[in-house]
Design a protein that fits this description.
30% of the residues lie in helices and 21% in strands. By secondary structure, it is an alpha/beta fold.
């Protein structure tokens, strides 16, 4: 069976158009039409050169992926999409809706309204093997194409207006570097027009990729899954840390910050007795005190009954935050947990497909960095 490429696979579409002598300016209008008419055939797109129709018909499809299932969390603000790729594999994308009018700003009610953030997957599975993350239990299956990455945004955009995109779903984004860069360039161009400031790429710390990221995608937000203040603990919970030693990672981040002049987001999962004691807070504070960072403390989401870790108590999280803020003046937030009941929370994304007999009454899936196939 012939394999078609996604029409959102910009590099492939551009190469084919160039080879056929078709002006690449038509790419944006093709994307806009498909976005506005998701059930369309490519033949229906108006005002293209006749040679473009022939090429599109034989090599491309409006979508190479389909939304297999949609799960709504009881929290009312989290929706998980289970997306089936043309190779039969599944990935998850999670929509989180926040109301920016909540709380006050300068003593006055905030302006704004509901804002949706989409958490996108970049790989089927992941080879990083972080011990607290369900996706790691899947092993690595394959990289997504840039078109498959962009299609997650298209599918989600049909449900709600997406304002922010975070690459915190299945996979290590910087291990699929070329497709990631291509996909983000599509998202920041016409017709999506997302600001790079509203796109965040999260990495465990792939040093060689961090070193070229700002040059390829200026203005982007970088989030680093640090999760431990010293190399030894990092290796225990993140096997990949052996390949990317903490000292070298911090040097790469220093260079990145100098070049980008942007804050770096530090993700830190709170594991009871492992990395959440006061001494760890002080070690983390000293490690980060020369950086402009925002530390995001993430309550651990257990992965079924097999988990070797426990969630830190609220008191420990609060004490940890106080040390970082009070002693080191580091801006520190605690991540609000969303979508745990549909395994859409951080570290929970694992594709657990119901078998055909139980699909009707199947329980909901797991969380965002936790998909298992």
């Amino acid at each position: 069976m012939a394999t078609y490429r996604s029409v959102f696979d910009a590099a492939e579409l551009r190469a084919q158009f160039n080879a056929a002598g078709i002006n690449t300016k038509f790419m944006a209008s093709i994307w806009k039409y498909v976005l506005q008419n998701p059930g369309c055939e490519l033949d229906e797109i108006p005002d293209l050169p006749s040679s473009a129709y022939r090429l599109l018909r034989t090599k491309f499809k409006p979508f190479t992926s389909t939304v297999h299932s949609v799960f709504h969390s009881t929290d009312g603000v989290t929706t998980k999409l289970l997306i089936k790729l043309q190779n039969g594999a599944f990935v998850e994308a999670v929509i989180m809706t926040y109301d920016t009018r909540l709380g006050k700003y300068g003593g006055k009610p905030r302006l704004g309204g509901p804002r949706s953030t989409l958490c996108i997957s970049s790989q089927v599975g992941c080879k990083m093997g972080c011990k607290f993350c369900a996706t790691g239990t899947m092993g690595f299956k394959n990289n997504l194409t840039s078109g498959e990455i962009v299609e997650q945004l298209v599918h989600a955009s049909l449900l709600t207006n997406i304002r922010n995109v975070v690459f915190m779903g299945m996979g290590e984004p910087l291990n699929n570097y070329t497709a990631l860069v291509e996909a983000i360039r599509v998202m920041t161009g016409s017709p999506f027009q997302l600001s790079p400031k509203r796109i965040t790429v999260s990495t465990v710390g792939i040093i060689h990729a961090i070193n070229k990221l700002h040059g390829n995608l200026p203005g982007l937000n970088l989030a680093v899954s640090l999760h431990a203040p010293v190399q030894e603990i990092r290796c225990q919970i993140m096997p990949s840390a052996r390949a990317f030693p903490l000292e070298k990672l911090m040097t790469a981040l220093q260079t990145y910050q100098k070049n980008s002049q942007q804050k770096i987001f530090i993700e830190y999962i709170m594991l009871d007795g492992m990395n959440d004691e006061e001494q760890h807070a002080h070690q983390l504070g000293k490690l980060l005190e020369t950086f402009q960072v925002v530390v995001n403390l993430i309550p651990f989401n257990p992965i079924g009954s097999s988990s070797q870790f426990r969630t830190s108590s609220d008191q420990k999280v609060s004490d940890f935050q106080k040390i970082l803020r009070g002693t080191y003046n580091i801006r520190t937030t605690v991540r609000k947990q969303m979508g745990q009941d549909i395994s859409g929370a951080c570290g929970q994304l694992v594709v657990n497909l119901p078998d055909k007999r139980t699909r009707e009454n199947t329980s909901l899936l797991t969380d965002i960095e936790d998909l298992r196939i």
